[in-house]
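Reopening this ticket.

The earlier resolution said the output was attached, but the attachment link was broken on my side. Pasting everything inline this time so it's all in one place.
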Amino acid sequence: MQGDVFWITIGFFTVSLLLICIGWGKVEGRVGVALIWVGALIMLGLIFVHIWLGVAIS
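Inline output:
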């Protein structure tokens, strides 16, 4: 993994983890559930991007 992709991944991972944690704290309301969903979608996006980069033909 290249250096720039690594740090971008760490940044998105941190943001998504923060969103999930904040959402879990406010899980009683709609905002909390929405934050959990956004955090989970960012995590899934990271997985798909890394799979895409892993199988890409250079």
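Reporter confirms the inline version is readable. The CA atoms of residues 14 and 31 lie 19 Å apart. The mean pLDDT is 92.
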